[in-house]
Amino acid sequence: MTYMTVYDIANDSVGLQFPLIGLACIIAGAVMKWGFGKSGWNSYPLMGLGLFLILATGAVPWWDQRRVTEAVARGEAQQVEGPIHDWRLVRVSDKRKSTDANIHSHYEYFSVGPVAFRINWGAPEAGFANRGSTEEKPAVRLANGMAARIWYVPIDGPGKPPRIVRIDLGASSPADAVRQGEGGVAFRIVQGRIADEANILSADSKARLDAVLTAFDQQSGHPLVIVTTPSLGGIDIARFAATVADRRGMADSGILLLVAPNERQARIMVGRALSDRLPDAAAQAIMDSVILPRFRRGDIPGGIEAGAVVITGRVTGGEAR
User: Fold this and answer.
1) 29 vs 16: CA distance, rounded Å
2) What is the 3-state secondary structure (H, E, C) of 52-81?
3) Residue 265 to residues 236, 239, 278, 301, 315, Cα–Cα distance (Å)
4) Is the pTM of the predicted complex or chain greater than 0.70?
5) 112 alpha carbon, distance to own chain's centre
6) Residue 296 pLDDT
7) Which residues, including other chains, have CB under 8 Å from residue 190's CB and lie 6 or more apart?
8) Helix orientation angle between 17-30 and 44-54, rounded to the nearest 10 degrees
9) Higher pLDDT, residue 139 or 41
């Protein structure tokens, strides 16, 4: 197993945006108080706000970052390795009394081995926090089944979740690692006609699919590959499918049915040699009329099996068009 680092506290830093805003508030308040020669208390709230911003978003996070990195330097970081499980994202809504406005917080939970992690996306604390994320586009997308190697520091005492100081995600080899930009997500591209990385197909489903795919390969001379993935890693599914097809040598010849159940997306990728027998419009029609209706009923394996039958029939001429 080859791992790729997607987060390391050594490369993290305390953001300066809000401390600089706080400094600007103090300067503006000082100018209002003494620059214009006017007495009064009007400028003090502005300076107080600036001081609060500097302390709350600058000094305190800097102190926290320093104590965590010093713990890492002292060798206090522990390591756990294995597949991610029990992953979930919880959205908590609290009403702010002063403005009567709803404030939303996101907590990400997951475990690796016996160690459970809880991450508050909005917390200004040191360590991995998926800062800058949205539900649709997290900075680093984690999902059940991903191979992970995580270093952590239990620095906040008993009953508190440990701080994650480094995350490595697994790939079968460096050549098979798909990545989105700096700090993106790595995952495996497994070989074979059926690569059920999302673990949604039963043994019976795989056996039926393998019979269909084997017969298609023998009859047409082209492979049809089924790939399920626990995460697209924030990558557009068309780009993801193109990368998988390219790494498998299917860009010119072959068909890929890609399913990302956690993101509720799927795509049929057709190689150039088969585009006349299965045009993009026909592939999309199969997706819309055969595969997706079953997915919406919660029958993902059934949608994959039905889609495979119709795709192979369309290409070989054994299924009504």
Assistant:
1) 20
2) HHHHHHHHHHHHHHHHHHHHHHCCCCEEEE
3) 10, 13, 20, 14, 23
4) no
5) 16
6) 92
7) 172, 197, 227
8) 160
9) 139
